[in-house]
Amino acid sequence: MPSYKVVYFNSRGRAEPIRLMLAHVGQKFEDVRYTHEEWPQHKAGAPLQQLPYLEVDGKAMPQSRAVLGFLAREYGLNGANNEETTKIDIIIAIMEDLTQPLAKIFFQEKDPAKQKELFAVYQAETVPKFLGPLEHMLKENKGGDGYFIGSKFVSAVVKHSSKMPCYKVVHFNGRGYAEPTRMLLALVGQEFEDVRHSTADWPKLKADVPLQQLPYMEVDGKIIPQSRAMHGFVAREFGLNGANNEETTQIDVVLSTLEDIRVPLGRILYYEKELDEIQKKEKLKEFYEKTAPKYMAGLEKMLTDNNGGHGFFVGSKISRADIFFYVVMETVEEDELKKYPKLSALMKRVAEAPKIAAYLAKRPQTPW
Ligand SMILES: N[C@@H](CCC(=O)N[C@@H](CS)C(=O)NCC(=O)O)C(=O)O
Fold first, then answer.
1. Tell me: the pLDDT tens digits for 263-301?
2. d(CA 52, CA 13)
3. What's the 133 CA to ligand 1 centre distance in angstroms?
4. pTM of the complete model
5. 233 CA distance to ligand 1 centroid (A)?
6. Overall fold of domain 4-74
7. Distance (Å) from CA 196 to ligand 1 centroid
8. Is the pLDDT of residue 197 over 90?
9. How far apart are CA 85 and CA 81, in angstroms?
């Protein structure tokens, strides 16, 4: 019997889905909870210097989403086929879109009156935008009287036909959230229609788009929203998501670590519109000094741990992890990436893979 230990603070937070999953499957675990006073003395020894992590027989696994995926696959709770797994990924991504703005409202905004105002907008606009489609997805399975995914689940996402599937990727005219999916399709030689909406057209299109946001993908006319669910679907479909649970989990760890870089960087570069050029520069300096190094060093180590870092993140061929890495590093400053020799060399290896090189040579040049 493997021994499990969940390490986190004394709260629900990012550890609770992991604890609930272990409780649900009846797997005993040690529930380690650090106080905020204790944390500094444990931080350096924690993988990626953050919590939560799971220890399985003494081996530490970081990134809550990767841990949850690992357990779900281990206990058969991650869908019975690619369509079900994709639906699960869509639901998890919706829950993230639903909860992410709350951090900004309650942790970043210090003025209580402003908090109240932002929360009212959140309840009036964000909550229905995501809960409406979730209710619909639940009802699609046994009228909504069971769970999101069930034994009689008929895929609402994609139905396979015997002919070549027809792919369409819909986004704005930028790389952004759609680029990992476009690059994976290019890598496997699967043609796709590359639909790019202008921001000028967006207000009149928005109401008819799934979850009122871009990107989304169409496969044989069936819709897959949420970028991570999109590239997950493609990666599983074409065998680029790891050869076993260990490899798939390692890919998830890499993806989540890259998200820990991409999200705060994207916020500074694109979303915090109130920042002037000087403030932006200061924030970027702080990001590159304080936030990026632990994740970049963590990635360099993950790469080095596989074949000495001379190949790819997982196994012996390019996977979804390397493609996502390439896309995120396109927004990281070149001089910062140069500090990590193995990662820099991987960037080059991915760019030089023949199908990727052909795709990069012909894709539209856009600022983001
Ligand atoms: N979690 C979603 C986030 C998608 C998202 O934030 N999309 C933005 C563009 S990058 C959008 O559609 N913004 C336009 C709007 O909300 O009106 C994903 O990964 O696909």
1. 999 999 998 888 899 999 999 999 999 999 999 999 999
2. 9
3. 15
4. 0.92
5. 18
6. Glutaredoxin (3.40.30)
7. 14
8. yes
9. 6
Contact status, residue 32 vs residue 6, Cβ threshold 8 Å: yes
For atom 11 of ligand 1, the residue with the nearest CA is: 213
Q: Which of 213, 230, 273, 331 to mutate to test the pocket of ligand 1 (most atoms within 8 A of CB)?
A: 213
* Residue 228 Cβ contacting ligand 1 at under 6 Å: yes
Distance CA 8, CA 307 (A): 31
> Which of 345, 346, 341 is CA-nearest to residue 321?
346
CA distance 33 to 152: 39
CATH 3.40.30.10 in the chain, residues? 4-74, 82-141+166-237
Which class in CATH covers the domain with range 245-362? mainly alpha
Of 298, 229, 265, 297, the C-alpha closest to 62 is 298
Check whether domain 82-141+166-237 has CATH 3.40.30.10, yes or no = yes
Burial class (CB within 10 angstroms; exposed 0-12, middle 13-18, buried 19+) of 178: buried
CB of 177 sitting under 6 A from ligand 1: yes
